[in-house]
């Protein structure tokens, strides 16, 4: 681990995929070593370090689509042979789509292999950066996230590699702060919350919800209401030898929900969702899809917008994505 060095030629913000890739390019393509990477966390990996929600995931070993398998943490929705660095190719992934643990370990191994840890200043958050035209350098404010100590550093070049999947976005719903039960965002999964025997509200039906809803509803004692604002298109993988194709499927739950959950937009207008058992889970008696909208959140649950129904909950999980424009 690098100390928060006072002066460097290049300062990189973030030790996730982008920061690691940029640092490797500096060393391999330019033979450049006078750089530092600041990261507010205690390890590399970025979003693959922070996202630890449970998932029930389909995988394709070699020739055929198997049944779903339980794995810890989230998973990719992109085949791993395409999600690895071109400079650090890996062809022996256990499955076609990697788990959070596998991808996290991949980035740690890449950092070790390229001797990047000596360049990384962990637990240091870049809180400010200002260009000084007189000195022709960046004045960078850095805060130690453990001690709270504020440091001033400089660099000739400043590179933001924080990515867009950093800051979880909570939906702006009236009363969100009044809920007395457990509440958290799927991107910051609270492992201390036991969902067994609980009434759980899941707000959102994008890629994250499609991964963890099938997992948590595996337990019939967990009753989930999934609030859907706008339905999306799902992809289900089909593997035939080395040829990978996809079948687009509408989110549907038999005839009674077909009109509610058929996407109104053409396929491809919004991000396609990789189906990891979401369609199957919709047929479970302990999962209800709700399309009535949310009027407000109250102390013990949610009041719907369509008919003012009050639905009590013990736990509320926001699967509402990230503030993708709130990055440096």
Automatic annotation (TrEMBL):
Q: Which UniProt keywords apply?
A: Membrane, Oxidoreductase, Transmembrane, Transmembrane helix
Q: Where are the transmembrane segments?
A: 7-26
> Does Membrane count among this protein's keywords?
yes
- What residue stretch is flagged as signal peptide? none
**Pfam (any one):** Pyr_redox_3
Record-level Gene Ontology MF annotations: flavin adenine dinucleotide binding; NADP binding; oxidoreductase activity
InterPro entries, A to Z: FAD-bind_Monooxygenase_sf, FAD/NAD-bd_sf, Flavin_mOase
UniProt cross-references to SUPFAM superfamilies, sorted A to Z: FAD/NAD(P)-binding domain
Q: Which family does it belong to?
A: Belongs to the FAD-binding monooxygenase family.
PANTHER family according to UniProt: FAD_NAD(P)-BINDING DOMAIN-CONTAINING PROTEIN-RELATED, L-ORNITHINE N(5)-MONOOXYGENASE-RELATED
Write down what this protein is called: Uncharacterized protein
Q: Which organism is it from?
A: Candolleomyces aberdarensis
**What lineage does the source organism belong to?**
Eukaryota, Fungi, Dikarya, Basidiomycota, Agaricomycotina
């Amino acid at each position: 681990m690098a100390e928060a060095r006072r002066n460097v030629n290049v300062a990189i913000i973030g030790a996730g995929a982008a920061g690691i890739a940029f640092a490797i390019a500096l060393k391999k393509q330019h033979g450049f070593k006078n750089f530092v990477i600041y990261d507010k966390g205690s390890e590399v990996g970025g979003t693959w370090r922070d996202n630890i929600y449970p998932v029930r995931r389909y995988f394709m070993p070699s020739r055929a689509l198997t049944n779903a398998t339980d794995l810890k943490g989230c998973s990719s929705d992109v085949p791993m042979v395409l999600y690895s660095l071109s400079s650090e190719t890996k062809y022996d992934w256990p499955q076609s789509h990697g788990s959070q643990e596998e991808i996290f370990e991949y980035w740690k191994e890449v950092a070790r292999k390229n001797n990047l840890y000596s360049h990384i200043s962990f637990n240091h958050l870049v809180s400010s950066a200002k260009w000084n035209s007189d000195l022709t350098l960046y004045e960078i404010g850095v805060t130690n996230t453990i001690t709270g100590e504020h440091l001033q550093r400089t660099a000739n070049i400043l590179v933001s590699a924080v990515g867009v999947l950093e800051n979880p976005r909570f939906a702006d719903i009236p009363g969100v702060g009044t809920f007395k039960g457990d509440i958290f965002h799927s991107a910051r999964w609270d492992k201390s919350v036991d969902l067994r025997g609980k009434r759980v509200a899941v707000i959102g039906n994008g890629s994250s919800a499609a991964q963890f809803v099938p997992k948590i509803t595996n337990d019939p004692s967990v009753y989930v209401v999934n609030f859907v604002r706008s339905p999306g298109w799902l992809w289900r993988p089909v593997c035939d030898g080395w040829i990978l194709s996809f079948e687009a499927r509408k989110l549907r739950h038999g005839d009674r929900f077909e009109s509610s959950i058929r996407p109104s937009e053409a396929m491809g207008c919004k991000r396609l969702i990789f189906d990891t058992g979401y369609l199957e889970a919709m047929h479970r008696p302990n999962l209800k899809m709700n399309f009535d909208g949310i009027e407000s959140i109250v102390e013990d649950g949610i009041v719907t917008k369509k008919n003012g129904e009050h639905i009590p909950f013990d736990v509320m999980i926001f699967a509402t994505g990230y503030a993708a424009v709130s990055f440096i």
